[in-house]
Amino acid sequence: MKNTIFIFTFLCMILSCKAQVVGTLEQFEECSNRPNSDDGCPDLENITYVKDTNNRLDQFVGTWKGSANGKQYEIKLEKKTNYKFFPESATSWDRIIGRILIKDSSGNIIYNSMNKSDKETYFSGDNFQHRGYVMSFVGNYKCLESGSVFIETRLNNPNEMKLFYSQDKDGLITSSSQCPNFDTFVPLLPIEVMILTKQ
What we know:
Structural class: mainly beta
Distance between the termini: 59 Å
Mean pLDDT: 85
CATH architecture: Beta Barrel
CATH class: Mainly Beta
Helix content: 10-25%
Shape: globular
Oligomer: single chain
């Protein structure tokens, strides 16, 4: 009986090890840069875990502060390993989840996601593009505030990080009832490069 239990346990361990197929962030970055990226990456279709094998995400982890256009920014970035946004997702990723605190020039809080759960921050990483890491951000969605955030630490000073926000514009429609001040709406994140310092 003990031998049967041992063999069963051993087989379960082997099957569970084979069940997870690991790929790397570098593989998926290379895949997205292929000339035929529209055809997908058939060599990566069976991967169930996209791992940060070289710890490239670690450079972003921490609290960063900076200012732009009269606003003060505090951005907290955390690395999550083997993370799935939804339990039914086929693939888990090592990724960065971000939280943001923004104050106006008088110190009034105009945006705060510091106490939100990982799934409610709406600020999460995707993958690398060369040295930069791409994250998606959704702020005031009724005013069409969503887009990509590009972050990159400086080569000569890893305690400084460049941040650039590219707001989605194509095919988006809103109305004055959803966003009354749409014509004068200013995005929460700066659309020019902002420098942040690690705290």
